[in-house]
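ok so I'm stuck.
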Amino acid sequence: MSDESYSRFFMLQTTEGIVLRTVKYKETALLVDAYTEDLGRVTFHVALPRSKKAALRASLFQPLTLVEWVADIRPASSVFKVTEAKLAYPFASIPFDPCKSAIVLFLAEFLYRVIRDESANLALFSYLKYSLCWLDACESAFANFHLVFLMRFSRFLGLYPNLDDYSPGAYFDLLNGCFTSSCPLHHTFYLGQEESSRLLTLMRMNYDTMHLFAMNRQERARCLMVLNEFYRLHVPNFPVLKSLDVLKELFD
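replied:
not stuck anymore, here's the structure
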């Protein structure tokens, strides 16, 4: 093996990653934004062979699919060429359940906008993978899943509110991310006492207990809007998510 071939061989790296967004590049390629276990957020270049029997197909790169990638990782490059890719965890229910699919489309858009750090974070990757696998395996009572996901994700951005600040009758200051004993005087980004209490309930939920907390569609939609506003206030240039309206109509 020549020195050049030897060097190139060791540029190939295998990593597991979650698809955030896929866009078509020319006629026979895709650019796939993904969050990976070992590399953090990256962009992969995937060449799609014209053969129908080819292993690499566009359907492999649907939003939040868990993929095992083999790519040519070069430090000076911002886009990495993929040589091999296969499912790391084949979903059994998400692609076939309209409600789960809508949740995944929303979360993919959210994560694409909010994950901007290119460095690897094993705790974050593990949280994303665990959450997706949990949703795929869940058979019922997952209507609050996206709310719990968004609330707990805020920990990774350092935004998770301090529960110790809460006392009955408190307000939640969205701008400063904390509970207060009186409503803020210098801005209007806060929740009243009743909604602050509901937010506290949401903060206490996890995937295994969320079915115990009943919410109707209007209450769930309001919680979603509050969480979206919270991220909009704290994440620079956070846009209006296109999939937000679709998700608000689910789970009557």
